[in-house]
Amino acid sequence: MVAIENTQIVLASRPVADIDPKTTFRVQKESLSGELGPNEILVKVLYISLDPAMRGWMRDVRSYIRPVRIDEVMRSADVAQVIKSNNTNYKVGELVRATCGWQEYAVLKPSEDLVKIKAFPGVSPSTYLGVLGMTGLTAYFGLYEVGEIVKKGGPNCTVVVSGAAGATGMVAAQIAKHVFGCRVIGIAGSPDKCDYLVKELGLDAALNYKSKTFFKDLCAVTPKLIDIFFDNTGGDILDACLRRIAFRGRIIVCGAISTYNDATPKGPAYYSALITQRARMEGFIVFDYAKQYGKAIEDMSQWIKEGKLQSRETIVHGIESAPDALVKLFKGENTGKMLVKVAEEDTRSRL
Amino acid sequence: MVAIENTQIVLASRPVADIDPKTTFRVQKESLSGELGPNEILVKVLYISLDPAMRGWMRDVRSYIRPVRIDEVMRSADVAQVIKSNNTNYKVGELVRATCGWQEYAVLKPSEDLVKIKAFPGVSPSTYLGVLGMTGLTAYFGLYEVGEIVKKGGPNCTVVVSGAAGATGMVAAQIAKHVFGCRVIGIAGSPDKCDYLVKELGLDAALNYKSKTFFKDLCAVTPKLIDIFFDNTGGDILDACLRRIAFRGRIIVCGAISTYNDATPKGPAYYSALITQRARMEGFIVFDYAKQYGKAIEDMSQWIKEGKLQSRETIVHGIESAPDALVKLFKGENTGKMLVKVAEEDTRSRL
Where does the record place the Enoyl reductase (ER) domain (chains A, B) (predicted)? Predict the structure, then answer.
């Protein structure tokens, strides 16, 4: 095998507030010999997952995962294809989900993190970064393990999802609506997204948080208050939902994308509603439920087949577009899962 | 019986921010005939309980209890003595705990809220507003039902209590320390209070939140982070403890006295630590556990007898001092339970 030129994007500096694609990241090239150690495989990255959590990985603070180091390849979950293998469990042409990061090629060793993707008719490999990846699993475990949806669900249960046109929110909203039959209200940032949520995903209502009448609108569509709030955004939306939280309401603190770029975030001013309504705010990290991924993926695959769970992606092209695309994610320019398509799958050798 | 002149303090206006004793309340006199309807009793108020929750009762918002109306007698829990009775279950001279409000006398009907106080050697009747009243019950159920102390407790469990020299905090800290054997750190607002917490209540450490080195001090005394935070204050103290919360830590949102007078409270900026540490913030109201009060009072009476639970009170005298004393409560001028002593118990007829 001749040497491969590998384009990588590394973290060049830690942003204090907004990400600046030009100074936060740096593009570099390395030459890969293609020689592999025992059990190693060489993969070509097909899709890179862009996630709000990436902003946290750039911060040098105590968290659930170590920060990305300066000059290190930016961390990401990816779908990749095996192009050379020293491991009989991984054959050339097979697809895997792995943490390759923002680069075109990676040499990987077997780990918990390296997972073969099962063939699934009619579903793109990129789905393993979206509905059937960490994104979908996050929605699933948030609702099941933190939101107590099994106990609370049903038509008398009002569920509000923020970032509902985003990758995780979309899955959470559909599960609550089409699996548990709840009354589901999505919150998003444009009339188009709201239309999509109601007309295509079948939610009961959708609200544009940028509207001047947002809080009044929220009151109007939550006459029985909010039993479960799946929060991806934080900020003023969280405050509005705290003001509408029901007795023993559950706030699933999944993300706070509206605050991740703030040097000093504003906290939820109305959190004392937790006292008066005996409500709970609880955070979680999907990794804690790794032992239950199999069951969750089985459930969600079934829901896709039954048409209860739709997938949607916003795809940008080329490894070098990753920094700009990440900024767009924080601006809410995506609908559904935000992905970078790095290379085409080679289907000649697909098993 | 001749007519009785009853001094009452009513809510005159709803404070927007700080309570102004002169404009928020108004003193008035009424004449009580002393005539009783069927099953009614006439009581003389001995002690009035002052509680941070009163600030919420003055606010005209959706809450766990209806707001006090303008021109209505200010609501409070009190210990009172029966001075006339039309009810064979309540004899003249007996002591009761009831919601009489800020007045010298009250005519009461039997209700869940009217509870006879059991004789208990060596314990003042005022204890039924403190350790053995809602105050102590709040500490008990907060730890047991929200803080999961039965599951988490023990020497490897670090518990931090804010407002630790206040009525509820003091009880929570002592239960965590002397019943569950946790490492307990109290937070209070003066060196004297901190001395009291360590030297008299036996806590492992106490910190003055007004110190410039408070956060550094907190880090130093929580080398294994904070497993349970019993929060009575909110504000910057809550943020500091969020920054030190442990994996799957529990924040018992009991009160937020530091924010109750704010027109627009500042929320906890570091609440996203709930995500990274899979932590939980949960509120509660003691009334929800009414069916378990008996067991709790039995437990706490036993701990008093065993010397595990001490009581302390700050007492002001005379019904008309209630408004000023409430302001002092918000300034943190009390140590232990803040009470107004309205009248002496008549021990001649004590049963």
Answer: 22-340
